[in-house]
Amino acid sequence: MPRYNAPFEIHVHGQITLRPEVAFEQLQDALKPLWKYAGARSLADAAESSYEDEPGIKFEAGDHLLQICWTVAGDDDFRQVLDEVCMNLNDLAATGAAVEVTFYDAEFDDEDEETEAESRDDFMMLFVGPDPASIMQVQRDLLVQDVVNMMERHFDGAELGGVVAEIDKLFGQRFDDLVNSMQLGKPPRGSGGGHGGAHGGGRKPRHLH
Questions:
Q1: Secondary structure class of 191 (helix, strand, coil)
Q2: Per-position DSSP letters for 157-182, written without gaps between them
Q3: Long-range contact list for 29-36, CB < 8 A, 24+ apart?
Q4: Residue 127 β-bridge partners
Q5: Structural domain boundaries of the chain?
Q6: pLDDT one-digit tens code per residue, 5-32
Q7: What is the predicted pLDDT for the residue at 204?
Q8: What is the C-alpha separation between 11 and 72, in angstroms, rounded?
Q9: Longest dimension (CA), the chain
């Protein structure tokens, strides 16, 4: 059932390329924890976001894409839902993909100057993919982008090849460790690990399209 007076507005944002044979019924089953949490009876019933200017949850069958720009009211228990959904999407994804999740404190008011309370906003980056290599590739690309963007404030982009090479070495070693430990039978279950966090301070702007 819908969650009234929920402590958070939770925004989920990502684009996942699905295997060509994936049908809507499979996707609906994979996302069942998501739409059940929203109090809906089906994926179609939950596809619209809480905000009209967000596209919601869309399955673009012709392009084999799952597009998510969707907000739901909820609590910290939504994190468990995300773990289940990521496990399910691992089995449907054609390539690695990142999913951004932002928890907005529903009671925090940026314009209220009389309160000293900090917002409980939080931010997570989750990863899905058909295998560990594809997930690591997405993690690597995001890290390179973050590091290069930061360092280009002080160095020319052409000077950063060595930095990128060192990042590649780190991920190469991590992948080799996975191979050697014989953990390649199944993709990583769940989120694949968080990526950064944001507590208090300035609020992360909502994704709009």
A1: coil
A2: GGGGHHHHHHHHHHHHHHHHHHHHTT
A3: 29/88, 30/85, 30/88, 30/89, 30/91, 30/92, 31/57, 31/85, 31/88, 31/89, 32/88, 33/81, 33/84, 33/85, 33/88, 34/72, 34/81, 34/85
A4: 98
A5: 8-131, 136-180
A6: 788 999 999 999 999 999 999 999 999 9
A7: 56
A8: 7
A9: 57
- For the chain, the 3-state helix, strand and coil shares in percent, each to the nearest 5, are 35, 20, 45
Residue range 33-63, pLDDT digits in tens: 999 999 999 999 999 998 999 999 999 999 9
Cα–Cα distance for residue pair 52/149, rounded to 1 Å: 33
Q: Are 104 and 18 in contact (CB under 8 A)?
A: no
> What type of residue is 190?
G
Q: Any bridge partners for residue 124, and if so which?
A: 101
Q: Which residue in the block uniquely carries the two structure tokens 């208090």?
A: 200
127-156 pLDDT, tens per residue? 999 998 899 899 888 888 888 888 888 988
Concatenating the DSSP letter of every residue in 90-157 gives HTTBSS-EEEEEEEEETT--TT-TT--PPP--EEEEEEE-SSHHHHHHHHHHHHHHHHHHHHTTTS-G
Has this prediction a pTM greater than 0.85? no
Q: In the beta sheet, which residues pair with residue 52?
A: none
Instruction: Kindly tell me the sign of the dihedral angle through the C-alpha atoms of 177, 160, 96, 81.
Output: positive
Query: Which helix (H) or strand (E) segment is 9 a member of?
Result: strand 8-17
